[in-house]
Amino acid sequence: MGIRIILISLLLYLFPTAACAEDGQIGLGIGTIAPNDSGNFNIVRASLSQPVEAIGYRGERWAVNTRGAMTLSALSNGSTNATMGTLGPDFFIHRSDPGARWFARTGLHPTLISRHSYDGKGMGGPFQFTSHLGAGRRFGVANAVSLHFQHTSNAGLFNENKGLDLLVLSLQWRL
């Protein structure tokens, strides 16, 4: 319960910051277990992000934009529920052309999870790392839809490290 309160408090604290940012985005996502994993997990997540101007690259053909991102998720396997929160950078790779709509995205976020054992699938402890890789398409200036593969594990910090693989569909809107 304590981790849930910390995650919700952090989200409520950071929301006004993202909302005031000129290019702040809010997102919603849903996902399910990836085909290579076992179990019956589902995830529903909310996200906030804003640009990190100091980190990026714009070449003649390609560009990389960085966004600071935070997610708060509800994770369930049918009989057990958990809250998961992440905070870290997302990198968007796309063509430099201002009209480019398609992008690739990746990121690595430190993660806190309120429950780390599900029907014999142990994740070791509350501190995890979540990495993701996917692709998406922009609609308008800052609205987008994306699909990504997400892996969450403790990177060997605990003896038990089963990890969790999910496929997540996300929608983002400019604030």
Explain this structure to me?
This protein has 175 residues and is mostly beta strands. It has a single domain, classed as Porin, CATH 2.40.160.20. The chain is 11% helix and 61% strand. The chain contains one helix and ten strands. It has one helix at 2-20, and strands spanning 25-33, 42-58, 62-76, 81-95, 102-113, 117-118, 121-122, 127-139, 143-153, 164-174. It has an eight-stranded antiparallel barrel with strand order 1-2-3-4-5-8-9-10. Strands 6-7 form a two-stranded antiparallel sheet. 29% of the residues are buried. Mean pLDDT is 84; it is low at 15-21.
SSE blueprint:
Elements (H helix, E strand, L loop, with lengths): L1 H19 L4 E9 L8 E17 L3 E15 L4 E15 L6 E12 L3 E2 L2 E2 L4 E13 L3 E11 L10 E11 L1
Antiparallel strand pairs: 1-2, 1-10, 2-3, 3-4, 4-5, 5-8, 6-7, 8-9, 9-10
What brief labels describe this structure?
Porin; elongated; 1 helix; 10 strands; eight-stranded antiparallel barrel; 175 residues; two-stranded antiparallel sheet; mainly beta; single chain
Short description:
The protein is mostly beta strands and 175 residues long. Helices cover 11% and strands 61% of the residues.
Coarse shape: elongated
Q: What is the CATH class name?
A: Mainly Beta
Task: Please give the radius of gyration in angstroms.
Answer: 16 Å
Give a quick account of the main beta sheet: strands, pairing sense, barrel closure: 8 strands, antiparallel, barrel
Element pattern in H and E: HEEEEEEEEEE
- Mean pLDDT score, rounded? 84
Treating each run of at least 4 consecutive H or I residues as one helix, how many helices?
A: 1
Work out the strand percent: over 45%
What name does the CATH topology carry?
A: Porin
Number of strands: 10
Q: In the CATH classification, which architecture applies?
A: Beta Barrel
CA(first)-CA(last) distance:
30 Å
The helix fraction, in percent, is 10-25%
Q: Give the low-confidence spans.
A: 15-21
Strand order of the largest sheet: 1-2-3-4-5-8-9-10
- Number of structural units classed as domains: 1
